[in-house]
Each structure stands twice: as structure tokens, then as C-alpha cells.
Amino acid sequence: MALCQFQLCKIPEVGLRLGVLTLSATQLERRGLVPHLTPDNEERLTPGILAVFAEHLMRQMLNNRINWTLLDIRDPALPHVAAPHANKFYRTETMGGIRQLSPAKYMGMVNQCQPEIFVAMAEDLNGPDETEARIKKSVVHSLAWLDECLRLRQPASTSAAFANLNGSRLTDLRIQSATESARRPVDGFVLNDLYHAPSAEMQLDWITASLAPLPAAKPRLAYRIEDPHQILRAVARGVDLFDASYPLAQADRGHALDFTFGSEATPSSATGQATSLHHDMNDPIYKSDLTPLDAACPCLACTRYTRAYLYHLHMTKEMLARVLVTLHNLTVFDRFFAAIRASLHRGDFTKEAAEFERRYTLP
Ligand SMILES: [Zn+2]
Hints:
Layout: E1 8-10, E2 18-19, E3 24-28, H1 39-42, E4 49-53, H2 54-57, E5 68-72, E6 90-94, E7 97-101, H3 103-113, E8 117-119, H4 132-152, E9 160-165, H5 171-183, E10 188-191, H6 200-211, E11 220-222, H7 228-237, E12 241-243, H8 245-252, E13 255-257, E14 278-280, H9 300-304, H10 307-315, H11 319-346, H12 349-359
Parallel strand pairs: 3-4, 3-12, 4-5, 5-8, 8-9, 9-10, 10-11
Antiparallel strand pairs: 1-2, 6-7, 13-14
Helix pairs in contact: 3-4, 4-5, 5-6, 6-7, 7-12, 8-11, 10-11
The structure holds zinc ion.
Zinc ion binds next to helix 9 and helix 11.
GO molecular function: metal ion binding; tRNA-guanosine(34) queuine transglycosylase activity
Organism: Tieghemiomyces parasiticus
InterPro entries: QTRTD1 (IPR028592), Queuine_tRNA-ribosyltrfase (IPR050852), TGT-like_sf (IPR036511), tRNA_ribo_trans-like (IPR002616)
């Protein structure tokens, strides 16, 4: 199935979009698998898009069976210091040390792996405080690398090409990057530098500037939007795809997610009290709690185990603690996006998003 055949099936409210295959979160891969999950556990997840990164692929072959694949160079959820890039090479830190990646080498990977989507090479920055000259240079380099990646794509390739949009804090450059990228024969776009934004409000401004010049019919992926509140605001501005870094990061902290969107109201919402987005499974209040984490959740953790057992696993630092909470968190995240899609179909997204803001405390 070719993912490049994106279509917007409905735009229920001005500014809101609902793609046939969009509005969901890509799973993030490390060394061939979703973090903490073995292949049998990974198959419990709803099939979707698995993001695979060249910095891991340099030592690990693709080990994907059930998902569509998105190939990019750098995992946005891992700490990273952008090395100065030469005109002809992207420098990235891998398990084998710093490696240089030319467009020819990267497109060799793309042409060999034939992912459903590949993200063109782009020059990344270390934060919003880079000099104006460096930011401008990164936009120019990225457009040149985009052209080179498109030129090197095999003529018969069915892989959809996504352009990397950048420009950091400079609105004019963000607009230039998006406008110039949209003129190329690409199938979608990636906003890859949003986690450098100094505040949630500024991140939304960056999103707005980058999305304004883009054609409505092509999907937009935003990496590392940090929490469900911000995801809803990004959806309202026209972002179609996200990644699963939030539920994975929460699982690493021992936080089991507990939120629903739209008509799937939780008992706590009936009280009118704002409630937390997660349970901290390190908290002794769960020591003797023999109820499931969430009686309505179909995941392995909720259907087989109690909160007391999950607390015990966290206290004894058992590997199974991460496995179960990761499975649960990814299930909650998947249901969150399914509920958003349903809300967009019904045409009550704006009302439900406001209710979500009221129902859950900000992280
Ligand atoms: Zn669950």
C-alpha cells in the first residue's frame, strides 16, 4: 500500500484537517524495535507508521513486519548535539562513533530499504540561539540537500518524499523554507526543530509560520510535541502526524497515562475537578491497590495485572515494569488519536478540545 496517496477526506471546521491515513502518531524505533518491547509484544500494538532512523540503521538492519516505515536520519527523541555540517555531508553520532552521511549514501539506504516514506536530509541546529547567519545557511543547505535527495531517488521508487522544514526562531526563514520546499515534487512535510522552541506559545507560532505556505492536500508531521494539550493545539493549526516520544518518555519515568478525549469521558471528569494525565507507579498509594490500572483499557497491563503489581515491579526495578507501562501508554495514545479523529468526523473537535483543557491539569 503506497502511503504517498494521501487524501484529505474531510475538513470539518476551518483550520482543522482529517487525513485518510493521517492524524496519528508514528512509533519510534530503536535498533529495530519499539523501546522495551519484544517482537511478540510489539504485535499487540495497532499497526501504523514506524519511524526508523539512519543513525540506528548504520548498525542494525530493519526489523519491521507489520507497520509502514518512515525513514529519517536522526531520532528526535534522543539527546543530540548537531555537529557542524559540511556542504556535502551530514555528520551524526552513531553507536560506531561520528559518521558522515552524504545524500548519495542516505539515498542508497532509502533505495535499498524502500520505506513507505523517507524524510530528506536537512541541516539541524542546536537551539534557537544560533546566529542568524547559521540559521540562514541551514535553510539554504537543506533545500540543496532536498534537491539532491529527490534527484537520487530511484525513478521507479514508491517511497513518498517528505521535506524537512526549518528556519528556527526566524519567521521569514521558516516561511522561506516552507515555500521553497512546497515548490518541489514532495509528498509531505516534517517540522523537525520544534523542541528548540523556548515556550509552548512560541512553538505554536513556529508551527503556524511553517504551515501557512503549504498545500492543504499534503500531510504535515511534527516531531516531539511534548504533551497532549499541545498536540490538540497543533491539530487545530493543521498538523496531521505526530510521534510517540511522549508516551515512551512517560513510561521511562514510571508514569502510566490516564486520559481520554471526547465522548470517552472518565469518571473523574464527572466531578468537574481537573485531574492528572498519569498515575505515578512509584507512588506508595498503589501499594495495596488491587484494581486494574484502567478497567476500560484493552492492553496487557490492564487486563492481567493490578496497580499493586505494577507498583511492585517499579519498586523492584523489574524490566517488566517498563514493558507493561510502555504497552499501556502506547494503547492510551492510540485511543487518544482515534477519539480525536472521531471528534473531527462529528465536527465537535473545538468543543471537545476545550473540555480536555478543563478536565486535565497541565503537566
Ligand atoms: Zn492499559
